[in-house]
Design goal:
alpha/beta, Rossmann fold, 4 domains, six-stranded mixed sheet, 20 strands, globular
Length: 622
Amino acid sequence: MSTILTVDHLSRSYGDNILFEDISFVISQYRKVALIARNGAGKTSLLSIIAGLEPSDGGIVTLFNKASLGYLKQEPDLTHSHTVFNEVYTTSNEVLKAIYRYEQAVRGHHQEEIEKAIERMDALNGWEYETRIKQILSRLKIPDLDKRIDELSGGQQKRISLAKVLITEPDFMILDEPTNHLDVEMIEWLEEYLSQRRITFLMVTHDRYFLDRVCDEILELDHTGIHRYKGSYSYFIEKQTERLDNLTKETEKAQNLLRKESEWMRRMPKARTTKSKARIDSFYELKETADRKVPDQRMKIHIAGKRMGKKILEVSDLSFSWGDLTILKKFTFIFKRFEKIGIIGDNGSGKSTFLDLITGKLKPGWGSVKKGETIQFGYYTQDGIAFNPDTKVIDVVREIADVVKLGNGDTISAAAFLNYFMFPYPSHHQPVYKLSGGEKRRLYLVTVLMHSPNFLILDEPTNDLDILTLNVLEEYLESFNGCVLIVTHDRYFLDKIVDHLFVFEGNGIVKDFPGNYTQYRDYTERLKRQAKAASKPALQMKTANKNADPGKLTFKEKQELEMLENDLGRLETEKGEIESAMNSGKLTATELQVKSSRFASILLDVEAKELRWLELSEKRVT
């Protein structure tokens, strides 16, 4: 494969803060490359330099063969006075121009212009391209094309920016957090779209399933430089662990040897021979290796939460609407100790509104929310909080507490706690305005956890946090001695953390599913297959039984119906027993997981058997 991009000896710093120094790498045509680094390491700056929008301090970026470039920024860069239609179709691409003229003529019912546009579309073979555009717009749920950009939400604007890049399909794409503001259905479609097409891109994303299924190469950026892994995210994790283990061993070996050499340097005579000078040079090389900082990839934290009483949170007949839009319809649920619940659903289905209702930020239209006396919420919202930009990082957390109590009874200082969350000590006295967007989100997370809540509510915590921070947060949540309620589109995060799901289906309907996201996905896929099979004409059955009376059951069908009725009774009994056990609060985490898995399996069996029972029952009646 030919080379499409080279980065040679690139460096960038802001004042005393060196983001990266003397890094080099190559991207070949049709490679799907992910860039991984902690927040503040310079990912977005690197992408901006490659795109030619930001200068470097040194080095060269070369895009070969006059390759076209498309850049999806974290923050949408759109013309606010445009309509969605104008924004999507404004381009220098000749085929897109022809499609734009055709769509304009059709929308204006100008017959003469339509005929001219059709001729142009035929000449450029634009019809397949037009179909693909409409598929992209539909899958990303792009709103009314006549709406102005400034009338849309930030998430809608981000989806339009993504659609523009996908539609133009440049030779080389730069995608900065493409999965942010997409619901799970959109993410899975984008995953399939990018993996199946012969395209070249460099992407930053925190979505680990997305990385694993789409990318075939990983670039890891840290203070030691850039490291290349030719393989998926799973391969990267394996090889990164090996690299860090080797780096740690080399550093420890150099530190042990350095102690001996330091003693020799102190006793060394002033007269230096050629041999001693060579040893002195080796000493300084050894010192550089021993002083090398090994990235801390695993951080264990466990903060003591407030004591939790028997009554947690009781939601009864909760209803709420925004105008004609029904968000909740008579939702009832009694939260139990130590539950970890994920919330999923389409954008705009009311997930964040639900969180505002149970925390008291919004008043319900009907029903009640009763909180236990011992419950203290820790609410991480999408909007975050507005830090004073001139406040020092250390002062932000010291306003909450000077020390943090850990789960084992020990305490650590606010500064040490910041360091746990990858704010190194030298950064504590810098003002907040110098932090990157991801670092500000991480600082916000620290402030939420420092209040020692016993009921954590996290609204899209995975947006704008790097993978290392997500691993730290997941580890914390797994050992968190309280309740957790999470809204996220991160499937990996849901699979790792939650016991069950609240599924927002729209029109006020919320269903409780006993299992993680992958189990829920498998369940819905089976239902779709069953529904599809049930909707087909029963041609084969009619052919097989053409000699039987079509209005009566055969002997075998009667036997099958009786077995189905027995099976359904048995499954319903087992289902009730499992529900009672799961609601008792007496199960261990392992027992709860086993029960949840069996419950999900029972639901599938009941659904399939009920479909067949209905089919046979209708035949018996006719």
